[in-house]
């Protein structure tokens, strides 16, 4: 009898897990409570993987040998309670992918914020050094899909706490924990310590041969380390004082010390600006050093890194107002990261084809940081209904030119106007790239 693998949730991680499971000879079935995107449906059909959408067949699911659960499904759901009662083994897609990529080098990055940037930067560093590396996880292609379709020698993985909740053997050679701030506490019984413990699972299987890279300036991390020892080799980073081992700042220079010769470069040569990016740059550089990447390559990478086009891409500054193109943010989660990373007041341009978005995830950040929302789409009702109580100004426009002009009119010196749509683009544009380019054109025409 083939191993019965049931995948709950058909997003990128669920589809990746299905492809890998099928490739490894498992008997795979995908169950999605909502609707499955057309491109994913096609992939399942082409690969002869049976699926259901719009409901869950409990009897089928409870008959599984093993379940891969999407990170988006909370434990509180009726279905998960039944699964736990029955005692079916539940793993995350990360765990499944790890099972079939043992012996490869894994750099795993988690934290409440800065994950995407640090992941992209670490990938850039390994790529610049000429290594066979893939960037996977929350930042694009799922880890399982990569293992199934284009396996690499090195994996740089962005991991959320939800993905860590269901690992069993997953063990990165380098685990990076950037910071821990209260986030998603609804999934952790509103207990900060549960959320912290969940982040620390990234190191739970590590041994002395592995590295745990962490921010010394984060009180939650330090408190947890004091109470719960970790068995891996610890490498801290800080901006508060020089260190003998790890990453630190002295005389406006970044210093990375890992086994031997230091990597030293001026803070002003770093491609990424801002305090939070000092931490991200140190973490990536430490990961590079643990893998013996030459210091010239590390310096070169930290200086040459470009944030991805249409992903928090700085366009220009007009009369003290910064314009940022984050057109790639086609879901609410991406907008959360975008809002989270900006310190200045924000005028947010959003809208497009709403795929049944749940905007509750960004409500707190909108309340805290967004002074106006400019909607741009054929139908802006979902955004207006969801967020109008959380921001003082909510305006509807029907195209990019109008949206940019309205946003500029509501911004004052020191603000940021950001296109971060949370929606697909095909009501007004060909794709998110086209939308991002139209935004840049409209900004330049101001």
From TrEMBL:
<feature type="domain" description="Mur ligase central">
    <location>
        <begin position="109"/>
        <end position="287"/>
    </location>
</feature>
<dbReference type="InterPro" id="IPR013221">
    <property type="entry name" value="Mur_ligase_cen"/>
</dbReference>
<dbReference type="GO" id="GO:0008764">
    <property type="term" value="F:UDP-N-acetylmuramoylalanine-D-glutamate ligase activity"/>
</dbReference>
<dbReference type="Pfam" id="PF21377">
    <property type="entry name" value="MurD_N"/>
</dbReference>
<dbReference type="GO" id="GO:0071555">
    <property type="term" value="P:cell wall organization"/>
</dbReference>
<dbReference type="GO" id="GO:0005737">
    <property type="term" value="C:cytoplasm"/>
</dbReference>
<keyword id="KW-0131">Cell cycle</keyword>
<comment type="function">
    <text>Cell wall formation. Catalyzes the addition of glutamate to the nucleotide precursor UDP-N-acetylmuramoyl-L-alanine (UMA).</text>
</comment>
<keyword id="KW-0067">ATP-binding</keyword>
<dbReference type="InterPro" id="IPR036615">
    <property type="entry name" value="Mur_ligase_C_dom_sf"/>
</dbReference>
<dbReference type="InterPro" id="IPR005762">
    <property type="entry name" value="MurD"/>
</dbReference>
<comment type="similarity">
    <text>Belongs to the MurCDEF family.</text>
</comment>
<feature type="domain" description="Mur ligase C-terminal">
    <location>
        <begin position="310"/>
        <end position="423"/>
    </location>
</feature>
<dbReference type="GO" id="GO:0008360">
    <property type="term" value="P:regulation of cell shape"/>
</dbReference>
<keyword id="KW-0133">Cell shape</keyword>
<feature type="binding site">
    <location>
        <begin position="111"/>
        <end position="117"/>
    </location>
    <ligand>
        <name>ATP</name>
    </ligand>
</feature>
<dbReference type="GO" id="GO:0051301">
    <property type="term" value="P:cell division"/>
</dbReference>
<keyword id="KW-0963">Cytoplasm</keyword>
<protein>
    <recommendedName>
        <fullName>UDP-N-acetylmuramoylalanine--D-glutamate ligase</fullName>
        <ecNumber>6.3.2.9</ecNumber>
    </recommendedName>
</protein>
<dbReference type="InterPro" id="IPR004101">
    <property type="entry name" value="Mur_ligase_C"/>
</dbReference>
<keyword id="KW-0132">Cell division</keyword>
<comment type="pathway">
    <text>Cell wall biogenesis; peptidoglycan biosynthesis.</text>
</comment>
<dbReference type="Pfam" id="PF02875">
    <property type="entry name" value="Mur_ligase_C"/>
</dbReference>
<dbReference type="Pfam" id="PF08245">
    <property type="entry name" value="Mur_ligase_M"/>
</dbReference>
<keyword id="KW-0547">Nucleotide-binding</keyword>
<keyword id="KW-0573">Peptidoglycan synthesis</keyword>
<keyword id="KW-0961">Cell wall biogenesis/degradation</keyword>
<dbReference type="GO" id="GO:0009252">
    <property type="term" value="P:peptidoglycan biosynthetic process"/>
</dbReference>
<dbReference type="InterPro" id="IPR036565">
    <property type="entry name" value="Mur-like_cat_sf"/>
</dbReference>
<keyword id="KW-0436">Ligase</keyword>
<dbReference type="GO" id="GO:0005524">
    <property type="term" value="F:ATP binding"/>
</dbReference>
């Amino acid at each position: 009898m083939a191993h019965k693998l049931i995948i709950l949730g058909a997003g990128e991680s669920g589809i990746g897990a299905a492809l890998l499971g099928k490739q490894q000879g498992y008997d795979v079935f995908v169950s999605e409570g909502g609707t499955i995107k057309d491109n994913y449906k096609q992939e399942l059909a082409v690969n002869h993987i049976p699926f259901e959408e719009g409901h869950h067949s409990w009897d089928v699911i409870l008959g599984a040998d093993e379940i891969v659960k999407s990170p988006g499904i909370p434990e509180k759901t009726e279905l998960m309670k039944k699964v736990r009662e029955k005692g079916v083994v539940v793993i995350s897609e990360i765990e499944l992918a790890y099972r079939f990529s043992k012996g490869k080098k894994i750099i795993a990055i988690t934290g409440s914020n800065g994950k995407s940037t640090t992941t992209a930067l670490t990938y850039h560093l390994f790529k610049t050094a000429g290594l066979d590396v893939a960037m996977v996880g929350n930042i694009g292609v799922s880890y399982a899909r990569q293992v199934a379709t284009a396996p690499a020698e090195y994996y740089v993985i962005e991991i959320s706490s939800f993905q860590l909740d269901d690992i069993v053997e997953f063990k990165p050679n380098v685990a990076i924990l950037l910071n821990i701030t209260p986030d998603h506490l609804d999934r952790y019984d509103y207990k900060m310590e549960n959320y912290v413990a969940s982040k620390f699972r990234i190191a739970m299987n590590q041994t002395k041969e592995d590295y745990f890279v962490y921010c010394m300036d984060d009180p939650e991390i330090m408190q947890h380390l004091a109470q719960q020892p970790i068995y891996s080799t610890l490498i801290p980073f800080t901006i508060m004082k020089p260190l003998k081992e790890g990453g630190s700042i002295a005389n406006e220079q970044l210093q990375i010390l890992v086994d031997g010769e230091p990597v030293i470069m001026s803070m002003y040569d770093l491609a990424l600006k801002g305090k939070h990016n000092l931490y991200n740059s140190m973490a990536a550089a430490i990961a590079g050093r643990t893998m013996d990447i030459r210091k010239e390559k590390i310096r070169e990478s930290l200086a040459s890194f470009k944030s991805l086009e249409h992903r928090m891409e700085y366009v220009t500054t007009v009369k003290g107002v910064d314009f940022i193109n984050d057109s790639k943010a086609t879901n609410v989660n991406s907008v959360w990261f975008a809002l989270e990373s900006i310190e200045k007041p924000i005028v947010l341009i959003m809208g497009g084809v709403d795929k049944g978005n749940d905007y509750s995830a960004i409500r707190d950040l909108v309340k805290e940081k967004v002074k106006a929302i400019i909607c741009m789409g054929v139908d802006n009702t979902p955004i207006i209904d969801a967020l109008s109580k959380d921001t003082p100004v909510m305006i509807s426009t029907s195209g990019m030119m109008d949206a940019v002009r309205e946003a500029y009119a509501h911004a004052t010196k020191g603000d940021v106007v950001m296109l971060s749509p949370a929606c697909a683009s095909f009501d007004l544009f060909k794709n998110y790239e086209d939308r991002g380019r139209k935004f840049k054109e409209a900004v330049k025409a101001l």
